[in-house]
């Protein structure tokens, strides 16, 4: 004897799946059939109740007036059937148009999703409703916009990396081939130039590696520790002390003690990148580092006199591979990833970064949250 489970599986397997294809593919058909079934059951129950009540009245009147029951039952049954059919037809037509209005945005959403899969990041048609479907469309449009921005950024990053790698690799290849074939003879100046190109490639790869590390970390609140921020600032400044002295840079610091929530290595990387930025572009021979409590955050500001920065470019300096020198001359700067790393690290600390420029005086600032709700008194 077969088990009930096996019989159930065979029964499902023997169902005419092709005949029920419309049921699997159309939400509109499902909703209409379910609604019509409910309407039909309600009408049937109401009709049976009306008919039974009418038959009861007819029997009473038959006793009083002697009216034959068949003259009463047949018309009553006819009118009940006609009313039921008309009710189902009218309800079906109304329900079709109402439900179609509900399912049409979902069809638009499906079409937009298919286009997104092909790489076409087009938003779905917006709808005015604020219900679940409306919020779903709104969320999809937001996702489409973000993916479009990410795709543009990805293409830009690939293009910038290719541009940054092409020049030093071409120079290295050309000089090495010339040295190998004897076209040119080696000399200290040539070897120094080749060494600079190799250092540029090494720096580019290292900064890309650092940026990739921080983008993949995604620090959570439980990974942020309570740190005395003045210790980080002072220790990082000491690392640059010798280089500042060799460059005759006057250093002024005004650091307020406070405990912050942060990642020690990440914040050291932020300070290091900002100070390296000072060394690359300094023109005034001085740098000022300030740290103070501002509401529920700790704000660090690094100020120096450097290369002119147009006011409309202040927000772009934190973008990947952005450099003020449009010619991408490596003698005037790095590869444009140092400030992008700063922004990524501070974003993961739930802080903010920015730049304030007054002619050629620039103040790069960032904020990180204070520990234990410490605020300025």
Automatic annotation (TrEMBL):
One GO CC annotation: plasma membrane
EC nos = 2.7.13.3
Keywords (A to Z) from UniProt: ATP-binding, Cell membrane, Kinase, Membrane, Nucleotide-binding, Phosphoprotein, Transferase, Transmembrane, Transmembrane helix, Two-component regulatory system
Which ranges carry the Histidine kinase domain?
160-372
Q: Which residues cross the membrane?
A: 27-47, 79-98
What catalytic activity does the UniProt entry give for this protein?
Answer: ATP + protein L-histidine = ADP + protein N-phospho-L-histidine
- The HAMP domain, residue ranges: 100-152
Topology in the lipid bilayer is annotated as:
Multi-pass membrane protein
Q: What PROSITE patterns does the record point to? A: HAMP (PS50885), HIS_KIN (PS50109)
What SUPFAM superfamilies does this protein's entry cite? ATPase domain of HSP90 chaperone/DNA topoisomerase II/histidine kinase, HAMP domain-like, Homodimeric domain of signal transducing histidine kinase
GO MF annotation terms: ATP binding; phosphorelay sensor kinase activity
**Location relative to the cell:** Cell membrane
What Pfam families does the database record attribute to this sequence? HAMP (PF00672), HATPase_c (PF02518), HisKA (PF00512)
Q: What is this protein called?
A: histidine kinase
